[in-house]
Amino acid sequence: VKIIIRIFDAESLSTSNALFTPCLLQLFGNGTAVLRKSDDDRAPQARFFPPLQEPMLLPGTFKNKVAFITGGGTGLGKGMTFTLSSLGAECVIASRNLDVLKATAEEISSQTGNKVHPVQCNVRDPDSVKATVDQMVNDVGLPDVVINNAAGNFISPSERLSANAWKAITDTVLNGTAYITLDIGKRLIAAQKGAAFLCITTIYADSGSGFVMPSASAKAGVEALCKSLVAEWGRYGLRFNIIQPGPIKTKGAFSRLDPTGKFEKLMIERIPVGRLGTVGEIANLAAYLCSDYASWVSGATIKIDGGEYSFMAGEFNSLSLVTKEQWDVMEAIIRQTKGS
Ligand SMILES: CC/C=C\C/C=C\C=C\C(=O)SCCNC(=O)CCNC(=O)[C@H](O)C(C)(C)COP(=O)(O)OP(=O)(O)OC[C@H]1O[C@@H](n2cnc3c(N)ncnc32)[C@H](O)[C@@H]1OP(=O)(O)O
Ligand SMILES: NC(=O)C1=CN([C@@H]2O[C@H](COP(=O)(O)OP(=O)(O)OC[C@H]3O[C@@H](n4cnc5c(N)ncnc54)[C@H](OP(=O)(O)O)[C@@H]3O)[C@@H](O)[C@H]2O)C=CC1
């Protein structure tokens, strides 16, 4: 808990709901060596941008609603499950590791008082997806909310990737999202039941990115899938939105994308808000997009990255490193220049 508390400064803790704070610290922390925070884990301007993590919607927003979350046992999926559950949803969480799912389900339901159902599922396998959805329909009925969050990723030079490495990532991210969406979507259409779908992608779905080429390709595909269905399935009462998170310190992501812990400082240097994002911030945005408050929102792609994407895209943004004295010199040179 000591480690986790250091993530938040006094300012952000004091603005948190006192009742929620202890369980938030537990749920949104990960407590592993790879997540240990260093002393320089924030830039000074981060004090202006405290991460508020408690659920922001009205209690009961998801009362009588069923939410299905892939990868709901860990990281962002666990955070979204906690938030939806605390707002009244009955959640179904699905991934490969049933023990992890069971532990998360127990932890969350004991804190929110709402049932969380763990169901084993390998999203790469359409038969496993069908069995999972059968079980959900049998236990709690068709969902009102579907969050495609499960993913696989690791950094690697592309010339080191085998065909199976490509397949492991794209089968999980793109095919997994397609199997889940097609299976649940067909059943919702047949039952004439509306629902909100949400896909968790990444900021580099737009740009592509070296060293995570299969993930970038698959996430771009997921976005095309969502945007296609916005148009095609709106008439069936189905909405589709996308969240593109920037870096959030989860064990799953950082152990595979920053294995030595050396990249985190570089990330923070290029994030204008001066800090990494938090699980609770993603969970609040996800809850809003999946709630009836967002019933007119379909086809939205929302970056939540502290400005990192804009910083990386702007040709001259590194000039924020130039000192006042250096600007004086450069301005004098520029002013002396005549003609072209
Ligand atoms: C720092 C954060 C900043 C920004 C974040 C932005 C985006 C983040 C996106 C994310 O998706 S983060 C979420 C990450 N979470 C996970 O990846 C969780 C699930 N991951 C896994 O289960 C594994 O890591 C997996 C993806 C490798 C799949 O495991 P599985 O057991 O099914 O596969 P295998 O171990 O059999 O491997 C398949 C295939 O890949 C090759 N391979 C595995 N690791 C590497 C590596 N590091 N480099 C190169 N190749 C690798 C492995 O050798 C297999 O190929 P072959 O059969 O040997 O040919
Ligand atoms: N953390 C970050 O910085 C960022 C994360 N994201 C995205 O956020 C989402 C969550 O990532 P994060 O929480 O960080 O990482 P995690 O590794 O914690 O989450 C990935 C989840 O996917 C599940 N999963 C993986 N493979 C399968 C499979 N074949 N079938 C079913 N479930 C599977 C895992 O569970 P299990 O192993 O039990 O199957 C795990 O719960 C992902 O979509 C990721 O791409 C995007 C941008 C930034």
Automatic annotation (TrEMBL):
UniProt source species: Pygocentrus nattereri (Red-bellied piranha)
A GO BP annotation: fatty acid beta-oxidation
Name this protein carries in UniProt: 2,4-dienoyl-CoA reductase [(3E)-enoyl-CoA-producing], mitochondrial
EC class: oxidoreductase
Alphabetical keyword list: NADP, Oxidoreductase
Keyword Oxidoreductase in record: yes
Pfam families per record: adh_short_C2
Recorded family membership: Belongs to the short-chain dehydrogenases/reductases (SDR) family. 2,4-dienoyl-CoA reductase subfamily.
Keyword Oxidoreductase: yes
EC number annotated for this UniProt entry: 1.3.1.124
GO cellular component: mitochondrion
Role summary: Auxiliary enzyme of beta-oxidation. It participates in the metabolism of unsaturated fatty enoyl-CoA esters having double bonds in both even- and odd-numbered positions in mitochondria. Catalyzes the NADP-dependent reduction of 2,4-dienoyl-CoA to yield trans-3-enoyl-CoA.
Substrates-to-products reaction catalysed: a (2E,4E)-dienoyl-CoA + NADPH + H(+) = a 4,5-saturated-(3E)-enoyl-CoA + NADP(+); a (2E,4Z)-dienoyl-CoA + NADPH + H(+) = a 4,5-saturated-(3E)-enoyl-CoA + NADP(+); (2E,4E)-hexadienoyl-CoA + NADPH + H(+) = (3E)-hexenoyl-CoA + NADP(+)
GO molecular function annotation: 2,4-dienoyl-CoA reductase (NADPH) activity
